């Protein structure tokens, strides 16, 4: 898009840091997205979480958190994907075969339980279904293995999350702006706003006063 470079420049001039996860190159056969789903593959998501954590470390160094300790546990997940869901085929359809992927769940070493967002964390991730795809079990691709979890793992600290599926560019920002969240926001040092690039083309970015 010819306007993207100007958009990025305007953001930075306005004091908004921009992290673009677009890879410089994609090797032949390299998989970035699920076969029959609108979302990214877990390997690409994890790569973005790693690069984003490194970016945050350069732009806004955070104090060490010696209490946070996480580990990864692999899990296999099989599903057809949301593009097949949209076709509303019968459950016993054989046109589209399910895809099996490997996700890596983030587990809290202190409790032995899967990672959970922390409202008291000093990092907040605001996002959409790209944030939730491997976090919410009802999306069908596993749980506790999404962008927030892997960002926490890479930052070595808990992360707070506000993310909605299908909420467009408005719902998460509206939730962020609710008066009830004032105290919650006072504890934040970094706010990451994740959205799909396609939202720049087909969404109404109405102003949400905070």
Provide the helix percentage.
25-40%
- Structure annotation, total helices: 8
Q: Count of DSSP E strands?
A: 5
| Class by SSE composition | alpha/beta
Strand content: 15-25%
Rounded to the nearest angstrom, the radius of gyration is 18 Å
How many angstroms does the end-to-end distance come to? Answer: 30 Å
The residue ranges in which pLDDT falls below 50 over 5 or more consecutive positions are: none
Short summary of the structure?
The protein has helices at residues 4-13, 42-59, 82-85, 129-132, 147-155, 171-176, 182-186, 199-202, and strands spanning 70-79, 99-108, 123-127, 160-163, 190-193.
What does this structure look like?
- This protein is an alpha/beta fold.
- It is 29% helix and 16% strand.
- The protein has helices at 4-13, 42-59, 82-85, 129-132, 147-155, 171-176, 182-186, 199-202; strands at 70-79, 99-108, 123-127, 160-163, 190-193.
- The strands form two sheets. A three-stranded parallel β-sheet has the order 4-3-5. A two-stranded antiparallel ribbon has the order 1-2.
- Helix 2 packs across helix 5.
- The two termini are 30 Å apart.
- The mean pLDDT is 95.
